[in-house]
């Protein structure tokens, strides 16, 4: 059965929303349905169906976004296939483990190690904040492991100190910059116009939330 929230979106946004719902199901399946080949196959079928039904809209997407869309679904299918094979023929005493707790022998919490292959794949589907609950750790831990494994680049230092020849130390504060979606004013106006045709009672807050759900991360002041 199709998701009712998706059916009321525009065709391209329909696909984007369906993709976000699919990635939720894939991650949940990989974490909770190992050993249930029928359910894994069902999610796999949903992934392939989304890719097939999206083909006629290929040229409505920017080339880079479409390539990422195809690659991500291909990765999902491979992960689901791997989970099916692992569940059908498991090693005698092994189980799927993507994170482990390692004690340092000192006081404090044990260090959480995350499988590099799992983390690399998970980061193509979602950010640290949404990966963390599945691993039982904080988003900060996920970001640290991603940095250690070279999967992401470190952000510029928020506070930078520079020593001048006369001994004076200058502290420069650079606030973090949000990773907003790149979209022109004309494109955004078109998206907002079509959205308001469907949801004429949307105020700024609801419109902003709707755009975010469709994958458009924008500052509130741009949504009017």
Automatic annotation (TrEMBL):
Region (Disordered): 84-108
Name of the protein in its database record: Uncharacterized protein
Low complexity composition bias: residue spans: 94-103
């Amino acid at each position: 059965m199709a998701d009712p929230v998706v059916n009321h979106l525009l065709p391209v946004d329909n696909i984007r929303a369906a993709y976000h719902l699919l990635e939720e199901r894939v991650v949940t399946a990989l974490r909770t349905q190992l050993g249930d080949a029928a359910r894994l196959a069902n999610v796999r079928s949903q992934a392939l169906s989304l890719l097939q039904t999206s083909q006629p809209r290929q040229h409505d997407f920017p080339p880079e976004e479409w390539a990422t869309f195809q690659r991500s679904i291909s990765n999902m299918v491979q992960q689901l296939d791997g989970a099916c094979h692992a569940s059908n023929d498991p090693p005698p005493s092994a189980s799927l483990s993507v994170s482990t707790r390692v004690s340092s022998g000192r006081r404090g919490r044990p260090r959480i190690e995350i499988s590099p292959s799992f983390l690399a794949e998970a980061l193509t589907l979602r950010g640290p904040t949404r990966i963390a609950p599945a691993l039982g750790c904080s988003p900060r831990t996920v970001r640290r492991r991603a940095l250690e494994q070279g999967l992401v680049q470190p952000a510029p230092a928020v506070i930078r100190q520079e020593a001048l020849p006369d001994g004076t130390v200058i502290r420069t504060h650079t606030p973090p910059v949000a990773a907003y979606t790149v979209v022109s004013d004309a494109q955004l106006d078109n998206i907002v116009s079509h959205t308001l045709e469907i949801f004429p009672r949307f105020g700024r807050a609801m419109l902003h939330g709707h755009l975010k759900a469709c994958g458009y991360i924008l500052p509130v002041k741009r949504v009017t």
